[in-house]
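Why does residue order matter? Because the sequence determines the fold. Keep that principle in mind as you read this record.
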Amino acid sequence: MGKKTVIDGKKTCLKCGLTKDVSEFEFRESHNGKKYYRSPCKKCANERKRGYSKKYRLLYRHEINKKANERIKERKKAGDVKLTKSLKNARLKHLYGITLEEYEKQKETQKNRCYICNTKEQKKALSVDHNHNTGKVRKLLCWKCNVILGAIEEDETILNKMIQYLKEHE
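Structure:
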């Protein structure tokens, strides 16, 4: 048999060459029931995995994205409601930190109306208004109100000047 690789609870990593406690190594069981510690330590193994994964994604990113997008398009054409909800949920979570359920609840609270102008939601869904500095979600707005707020960069002085301008030119 081969030499013993664990001595007094220590093992040497074949990648970095450092002798470390066995808790720093991944413990495995082979198909024949033999138990052993992997040769590279957890840190070196993770670095290798990350490097491979990153390299693979860079090399094949275009094909991976293309295939995924084709599958999504096919499911959308087929009217996959579950997919649509899943995509909406992922987008809301990524952009605003809220779930689709929270969005729908807020929409219900506002009776499917814009919080500012009170127009009913049309073809375009209500936009999630949020503070660009803190990221905190405020209310749901129609496309028009959301664009106006964005155009004035949420600056109250500009908004007040616009109100003054409208009053002067009635």
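Residues 42-77 form the longest helix (36 residues).
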